[in-house]
Design goal:
By secondary structure, this protein is mainly α. It has a single domain, classed as 434 Repressor (Amino-terminal Domain) (Orthogonal Bundle), CATH 1.10.260. 71% of the residues lie in helices and 0% in strands. The protein is built from five helices and no strands. The longest helix is centred in the C-terminal third of the chain and has 15 residues. It is globular, with a radius of gyration of 12 Å.
Length: 78
């Protein structure tokens, strides 16, 4: 079974900082508190598929393209 929680959280944070978006901005766009969004980036809150789609829409990236680098390293190990 793939364990992508922490790698996904790290990828979300990396993309957000690359785009120079604040956590406050992301939280506003996702209609949640900054604290709740922070927990997503720390891997303390699981990301649902719908939430991932929303995040990718904010980032203006395709979900599949966003997930490939997150999942690929685990597929090589398996």
């Amino acid at each position: 079974m793939l364990q992508i929680g922490k790698p996904l959280a790290m990828a979300i944070r990396q993309k957000r900082t690359q785009l120079k978006y604040s956590q406050e901005y992301m939280a506003f766009k996702l209609n949640q508190t900054q604290n709740a969004y922070c927990k997503v980036e720390l891997g303390q809150t699981k990301v649902t598929l719908m939430k991932l789609i929303e995040i990718c829409e904010i980032f203006e990236v395709d979900v599949n393209d966003f997930l490939k680098p997150v999942i690929a390293p685990q597929l090589k190990v398996a």
